Amino acid sequence: MKSLKDLAPGEKAIVSKLVGAGSIRRRIIDMGIVPGAEIEMERYAPLGDPIEIKLKGYHLSLRKEEADNILLHQEDEGGNDYAK
Asked: 2-77, which class in CATH?
């Protein structure tokens, strides 16, 4: 399964699962990143960390360490899963 840190800028995916525990997981959930949410990768910072994503119409910055806890799947234009 692909994690959020593996998306290229411009790619979109759906949150499948959150891994990890404790304060990082709670912070991710509090930002609205929950299973079923659609995420678009906006860009990576010049040194690769943090990353910027678009979620529910707003922009968020996450560290790669946090993004690695967010597992994704992608759908083709017909709504069929093609990358799990």
From this structure: mainly beta
